[in-house]
Amino acid sequence: MAMDRRDTFKLAGVAAAAAALPTMTLAEEKAAASKTTGKSVVIIGAGFGGLTMAKALRKLDKDTHVTVIEKRSMHMACPLSNGLLGGLDDMSLSMFVGDYGEPAMKHGYNFVNSEVTGIDRKAKEVHTTTAGAVGYDILVLSPGIAYDYEKQFPTWSKEKIAHVAAACPAALMPGNEHVALKKQLENMDDGNVIIVPPASGKFRCPPAPYERTAMIANYLKKEGIKGKVIVLDTRPGKFAKAKAFKESWSETFADFIEYRGESTVTDVDPVAKTITYEDADDKSHTEKYEVCSFMPINKCSPVIAMAGIEHNGAGYAMMDGYSFKSKTDSSVYVIGDAVTHKIPPSGQTAIWGAHRAAKQIVAQLNGKVEDPKGGLPAKAANVCFSMVNGAPEEAIMVTHTFSADESGVLKGAGNVPKPKDGNGKFRSTGTAKATREWFAGVMREMFA
Ligand SMILES: Cc1cc2nc3c(=O)[nH]c(=O)nc-3n(C[C@H](O)[C@H](O)[C@H](O)COP(=O)(O)OP(=O)(O)OC[C@H]3O[C@@H](n4cnc5c(N)ncnc54)[C@H](O)[C@@H]3O)c2cc1C
């Protein structure tokens, strides 16, 4: 559907009116819309990056007119969701969901619940399924990831992919996958749970599959379910926080966890509930499961390609030096998991990047330049916690310092510390307490 720029601005005015004053007259709508000319920022994706960005922009410059476009009607946070699967005390679904309307009203930005289907950079318009075209001066992309079953299993039909995705939830994206996995665990009989981490490439929250392993082992133990968590990993035992995970797996769930490195999954049969894989010697094995969380190779959300900006083979956006500007277009910024900076794809990184990018955008809108190297190196810019035990509740952590690498990229260096209250171990109850506090903090960052 074609719309001209006048209609586009009218839509922005309508959205503003809906958020601020539902009874505006048409004349007032137009006046409100005209105020935004030159300072309209449209954000695609209301996840960790997008919601942080919207609030930060409105706080930094009240003249900025901000519109967030999101395809989902409700937020479901991924961090700590493995704790929900693990049956940790006092954890319920309500902790993880957020209402988009509340922060939009409070901070004075527009929330549009619609899916983006196209981006016209020449006209500076974003096209949506239900809200028409939305104009921008600056566009921010924070659309997160997508799954790449097609690359991993080129012979699988669309139907097979859909069947495996539904039957063996990856639960790496906000939405109903975590709920589906939890229901499967609640309904399972004695038997094994199989976890398959993404086989290769960059993937969302690298410790997540291994935290899930510990938490599902906790669930089996707590519920008295006779079975094991079997991890079929392509890696030879080297993964995020590996030393810390292995220490706690062997000391808390030795009878419940079996890690099989150098395993390449070749097929999943969701009807027979079997998974087939090849070991390091190319020997094929078929294993029966009760529940399976199969995490496919990740790629970037197609929104980056939709914008026609330069990206790598997996769809992640090429960046302009250390900044959060895309390499291709100085009016298009990219944050969150969708960037090619060499920093870990995490919610904390998305928040950190959103704050930096917001400063860069406000400077640009006001004819100034924010130094993209300012404040670097940034110590503990990313802190990522993983729950590893339920009784007592214990967690491990990794911190990353982000710096301006000489090669011209923004780069992270990680450290897995042993906490003071850990008695020489990587895990501690204090770290678990900090995990819960961190999570409450990031939910406040996005929704308060
Ligand atoms: C199990 C698990 C545990 C995790 N634990 C941690 C942790 O402990 N600490 C941590 O820091 N991080 C953690 N993460 C990672 C964190 O959730 C992500 O890195 C973070 O969500 C990335 O933010 P984002 O804004 O890039 O993407 P998202 O938060 O996924 O947001 C992207 C949004 O864009 C929307 N969108 C996509 N396409 C369109 C479209 N066409 N139109 C409209 N809207 C669209 C999506 O619906 C989505 O809401 C974890 C992740 C998982 C899966």
UniProtKB/TrEMBL annotation:
InterPro entries: FAD/NAD-bd_sf, FAD/NAD-binding_dom, FCSD_central, FlavoCytC_S_DH_flav-bd_sf, SQRD, TAT_signal
GO terms assigned for molecular function: flavin adenine dinucleotide binding; oxidoreductase activity
Residues covered by the Sulfide dehydrogenase [flavocytochrome c] flavoprotein chain central domain: 180-281
Residues in FAD/NAD(P)-binding domain copies: 40-144
Protein name: Sulfide dehydrogenase [flavocytochrome C] flavoprotein chain
Species of origin: uncultured Sulfurovum sp
